[in-house]
Amino acid sequence: MRGKPFSAKAIFVLCIASFLAGSLFTNQNWTHPSRAKDNRIAIIPHHVTKLQEVKQDCDPKRKLVEGKPGDIMGEVHKTHEAIKSLESTMSTLEMELAVARTVQSNGQHYSLEKLANHTLQKAFVVIGINTAFSSRKRRDSLRQTWMPKGEKLKKLEKEKGIVIRFVIGHSASPGGVLDRAVDLEDAEHKDFLRLKHVEGYHELSTKTRLYFSTAVSIWDAEFYLKVDDDVHLNLGMLTSTLAKYRSKPRIYIGCMKSGPVLSQKEDKYYEPEYRKFGEDGNKYFRHATGQLYAISKDLAAYISINSPILHRYANEDVSLGSWLLGLEVEHVDERSMCCGTPPDCEWKAQAGNVCVASFDWSCSGICNSVRRMKEVHDSCGEGEGAVWNVDL
Questions:
Q1: What is the pLDDT of the chain when averaged over all its residues?
Q2: What's the pLDDT tens digit per position in 41-89?
Q3: N or C, where is the chain less crowded by C-beta within 10 Å?
Q4: pLDDT band at residue 262 under the 50/70/90 scheme
Q5: 252 or 26: whose pLDDT is higher?
Q6: CA 232: distance to chain centroid?
Q7: What is the 3-state secondary structure (H, E, C) of the chain?
């Protein structure tokens, strides 16, 4: 070295200064990580607490267990209301789809705007009375007994939501004598529902299917009922009976039976497709007897939507039962819908058990109904004012 060498004392001082500077620098750099670590440790419990709070809020079972009795009932009520609202929305959509398909199948052409504005008439129950061209006297016997007519029929529909119509199609010769006779009768009483259907005994399954499809395209009802024109009804008892099931979806109400499958051609209710039901002597699946039955509106909408692919058996009550067999449907066996004629229904009425419907099993209706309908009505009728006292 050319310069003057450092003294030992200067070197010692420099070493001490470097050590102190290094120590100070090291302490400052290690302080920040530890502080940051402490911050992170403090943050973790906070997030854990928030997650636990969110988990509690999203766990309805825990809320119900930890909540007060009033809170629990409130949650149950809210859930019940939400389910009812969802079911109502789904049912409405099904009805709208059924209407659109029925309109299309009937050959009616609506614009989207017109179809959107097509509003259904609200009703509690639509009662379709199955009738034929030859049954004018039967229809008159009903108008003179349990079925209101004229202004009373309109009032019942408007104030109680009970719609009653005779259901009939057309003859094989449209515009002929038979059709004109029904047109004149309808002009007088205004109580028919005309179907685009050719009348015939062996076409009852088709007629039933078309009745439900047509009815849901006109009325937004809670129930749709089919009854024969030789059966006596008590409208008040019918309405109060149906009202018990209005909160339940997919209801099928009637007198349930499981009769034998008839394989002989000479039998009145011969089933040509009897082999589908197994060996000779087998019975049908459980279904409502054909004189009278009711279904809820979602089932009527289902029939309308799937109408083209629903199989028709020889007997219309069997056909309806088969359409509903594979669905989540509650079968209600309502025995008051199949009382006998006097003295059976009379004794029950005297005991306070007024029947919904009365007929004779031997005749699949009231035997000689034109002559006997008034007799049955006088003995087993509930009184004209009964239907008006039912609270819906």
A1: 82
A2: 343 444 445 445 444 444 554 544 555 566 676 776 677 667 666 665 6
A3: N
A4: confident
A5: 252
A6: 26
A7: CCCCCCCHHHHHHHHHHHHHHHHHHHHHHHHHHHHHHHHHHHHHHHHHHHHHHHHHHHCHHHHHHHCCHHHHHHHHHHHHHHHHHHHHHHHHHHHHHHHHHHHHHCCCCCCHHHHHCCCCEEEEEEEEEECCCCCHHHHHHHHCCCCCCCHHHHHHHHHHCEEEEEEEEECCCCCCHHHHHHHHHHHHHCCEEEEEEECCHHHHHHHHHHHHHHHHCCEEEEEEEEEECCCEECHHHHHHHHHCCCCCCCEEEEEEECCECCCCCCCCCCCCCHHHHCCCCCECCCEEEEEEEEEEHHHHHHHHHCHHHCCCCCCHHHHHHHHHHCCCCEEEECHHHCECCCCHHHHHHHCCCCCCEECEHHHCECCCHHHHHHHHHHHHCCCCCHHHHCCC
* Distance separating alpha carbons of residues 10 and 47, to the nearest angstrom: 57
Tokens of 181: 């006779």
According to the model, what pLDDT value does residue 149 have? 94
Omega prior to 343 cis, within 30 of 0 = yes
Positive or negative, the Cα torsion across 291, 294, 295, 301? positive
Phi, psi of 118 (to 5 degrees): -75, 105
Q: What pTM does this model have? A: 0.72
61, 211, 301, 334 from 331: Cα distances, Å: 33, 21, 17, 9
Q: Which residues contact 281 (CB under 8 A, 6 or more apart)?
A: 260
**Paired sense of beta strands 232-233 and 219-228, if any:** unpaired
First-to-last alpha carbon distance for the chain, in angstroms, is 117
Query: Kind of pairing, strands 162-170 and 121-130?
Result: parallel
